[in-house]
Design goal:
single chain, about 350 residues, mainly alpha, Cytochrome Bc1 Complex, Chain D, domain 2, 13 helices, about 35% helix, about 0% strand, binds heme C
């Protein structure tokens, strides 16, 4: 009995000591070394396991790329959230996934090419990661080189420009951070920390980033109506350029088509299978995004409609410009796709500040 108490007291003392020595983390100590910041999580776990409105559930049923062994759980996505925003996952602790996929920018960034941990530029434009769960094949990146959301998650970490770690370094760093064992325990039932579980947790968090609270969604649920201009824009979206309409390639309701585009763009980059083909991500919130297309060369949607984008304009390779009278209604329609909740919601935000 006494022995139990003694060792319990010892544990408490050690924990207290560790806590005290780390509590002013994120600041520079007298010796000039920076101790890591701690995440702040709410007392009650936030809810990531959702039932969406019927039009979204139907799309999920048709296109969900969640593997059988990695369904979203609230604790799994919570761990994923911490990992996603943790700068310790980069070589010099300066960059996290959230640096190039910023919540306030629809999980994209605002530059054509992004800056990695040493200031070097990425080869391509950062993608918005909204609704990645709805890309049926699960293939990620502009050229679809990652076979799944899980496989994708470890690539930026190992990329020499982006985050610059080996998987062994990643595991060592994550194991050394005091807040992770408890988070892994809750998420996966064990304090084991390895790159497979890191990838799974990040993927759970990413798959939970689903837009369903825009005006478009309220209209589809019969809760609101489009203005005449928005309704006209929707009609144009569904018909212009037929048989290859906007909706053929960017299909409602997630404005994402799970089929690999079967056609090649003019050569600026090798693309999918070296065939100059590129994936397009979800067009949700696209009216607020800047630096579009795989090289980030198109300033925004308005510039795309008026000046065009990489493409020949020869069907089915769209130059993405439209007739002048279609611009205003199309813009009005695309504005209804903006979900303002997702860009501020606590459960998707950076827990390190
Ligand atoms: C330095 C900037 C940068 C960092 C850091 C970064 N990314 Fe990215 N991300 C990009 C770029 C650039 C692309 C497109 C690259 C390509 O297609 O070749 C991309 C693409 C993606 C995609 C593909 C989306 C799709 O629809 O195919 C996902 C998912 C993603 N990143 C998640 C992450 C995760 C998870 C992390 C952290 C582990 C991360 N990113 C870190 C810049 C970054
Ligand atoms: C035949 C298929 C096709 C059609 C039709 C099409 N697109 Fe695209 N779209 C693509 C592909 C593929 C890309 C990615 C190309 C790239 O990055 O080089 C793209 C990119 C985009 C982007 C940039 C996305 C981003 O994340 O950077 C926007 C916005 C867009 N399309 C809107 C539209 C609109 C609006 C229409 C109708 C006027 C339309 N598209 C018609 C295939 C199509």
């Amino acid at each position: 009995m006494k022995r139990v108490c003694l060792s319990a007291c010892l544990v408490v003392t050690i924990v207290l000591f560790q806590y005290c020595s780390k509590k002013d983390s994120g600041t520079t100590t007298g010796t000039g070394t920076t101790t890591p910041a701690q995440p702040t999580l709410p007392g009650t776990t936030l809810n990531y396991v959702m039932t969406y409105p019927a039009h979204i559930q139907a799309a999920l049923l048709a296109n969900d790329n969640t593997p059988a062994d990695n369904a979203i759980t609230n604790d799994g996505a919570t761990l994923g959230r911490v990992l996603f925003y943790d700068k310790q996952l980069s070589k010099n602790n300066t960059v996290s996934c959230g640096s190039c996929h910023q919540q306030k920018l629809a999980f994209d960034d605002s530059s054509s090419l992004s800056k990695g941990f040493e200031g070097g530029s990425t080869d391509r434009n950062s993608m918005s990661i909204l609704n990645v769960r709805f890309y049926k094949s699960g293939k990620m990146f502009w050229d679809e080189r990652a076979a799944s959301v899980e496989k994708q998650a470890l690539q930026p970490i190992q990329n020499h420009t982006e985050m610059g770690l080996t998987l062994a370094e990643l595991e060592t760093k994550v194991k050394a951070l005091s807040y992770y064992p408890a988070l892994f325990q809750k998420a996966f039932g064990s304090t084991t920390i390895d790159s497979v579980l890191i990838a799974k947790a990040i993927a759970q968090f990413e798959r939970s980033i689903v837009t369903y609270q825009s005006k478009y969604d309220r209209v589809k649920q019969g809760l609101e109506t489009f203005t005449p201009l928005e309704a006209q824009g929707e009609q144009i979206y569904l018909t212009v350029g037929a048989p290859n309409t906007c909706n053929t390639c960017h299909t409602a309701p997630m404005f994402l088509n799970s089929q690999t585009p079967p056609f090649a763009f003019p050569a600026t980059d090798i693309g999918i299978n070296g065939q100059n083909r590129f994936k397009a991500g979800s067009l949700r919130n696209v009216a607020t995004r800047t630096s579009l297309f795989h090289k980030g060369t198109v300033a925004n949607v308005l510039a795309m409609f008026t000046a065009g984008a990489p493409g020949t304009g020869t069907a089915p390779i769209p130059a993405h410009s439209v007739a002048p009278q279609d611009v205003q209604p199309l813009m009005a329609f695309l504005n209804t796709l903006t979900d303002n909740t997702i860009i501020t919601e606590e459960k998707f935000s950076n827990p390190f500040k």
